[in-house]
Structure prediction request, 126 residues.
Amino acid sequence: MTTPTPAPPRLDAHLTISEVASRAGVSANAVRYYERYQVITAERTKGNARRFTIDAICRIRLAVAAQRVGLSLAESAEILAEIPPMSPDLEKWSQAGQRLIDAGQARIAELTTVVDEYRTLEFLRR
Prediction:
């Protein structure tokens, strides 16, 4: 028996922390953390509860991917700041993705250089 897939939220929905966390694959504490680093933003209800727009999920997923290649949250936030909230502009999202790819490839090149130095013991000759 398969588990039914939850219906996707409406684009204009204001999601709770737990909804964002569940859909982004992170904990509620991580959502708060990403908000603190301005990767995502929230509005507050009259009861002071956070509400997020649907794009918070994409922003968190991009930030998580960026962290995996060694980018800091500040770097991710800087890249994502170029995309206005709820932007349907796929070109802006693609550009952000390309910047993350470029940064990841630069990190790989840096690490490759370090590993090569270890192989040759070059770092001991300086």
About this structure: The chain has a mean pLDDT of 86.
